[in-house]
Specification:
Blueprint: E1 3-7, E2 18-22, H1 30-50, H2 56-81, E3 85-90, E4 95-100, E5 107-111, E6 117-121, E7 128-132, E8 137-139, H3 146-164
Antiparallel strand pairs: 1-2, 2-3, 3-4, 4-5, 6-7, 7-8
Helix pairs in contact: 1-2
Length: 165
């Protein structure tokens, strides 16, 4: 799952800090990216070999370069957007959610953890996961799959119960 819970040891007051980090899943690692681009370039160059030494080569070559360059650009854009992350800090008295998007300032929400509820509802995506304290509602894990949001909602409900004591 593209999220991880960590807990700190109890401090002097006995409070335990729960930290949840969420990130978008990327199925193509960097090493796989290199292989994919190389394989794409090799397969696209096969038709070029048939016209090597002719005028047709110069007509096909720009399209091959555009195709490989387009794939390269698209996958690099996917990696840049994959640096998005959300961080939730929870203890007995407060809940803080911070969302980091590359190229944008961080967004932060803080409230009393006693009043927070996690819920799934209809929204722009299936199993739209929201946190609310009664006055404000925020979305959490928009980049997760519907099943991951459902299981995260259950985990959050249990974590809120443990934090309340």
């Amino acid at each position: 799952m593209p999220y991880r819970w960590t807990e700190t040891a109890p401090d002097a007051s006995g409070a335990v800090l729960h930290k949840l980090t969420l990130w978008p899943h990327r199925s193509l690692p960097r090493r796989g990216f290199v292989w994919f681009i190389a394989t794409t370039a090799v397969f696209l160059s096969l038709p070029i070999l048939a016209v090597l030494g002719t005028q047709v080569l110069w007509g096909l070559l720009p399209f091959m370069v555009l195709a490989v360059g387009g794939v390269w650009f698209a996958i690099q854009h996917s990696y840049r957007t994959g640096r998005t992350c959300e961080e939730l800090l929870l203890d007995r008295n407060r809940l803080q959610v911070r969302r980091h998007d590359p190229g944008r300032p961080d967004r932060e929400w803080q409230t009393n953890s006693y009043w927070v509820r996690a819920s799934l509802r209809k929204g722009p995506v299936e199993n739209y996961l929201t946190l609310t304290d009664g006055t404000r509602e925020i979305e959490l894990g928009a980049f997760l799959t519907p099943d991951e949001r459902r299981s995260l909602c259950d985990e959050l409900t249990r974590a809120f119960g443990r934090a309340r004591g």
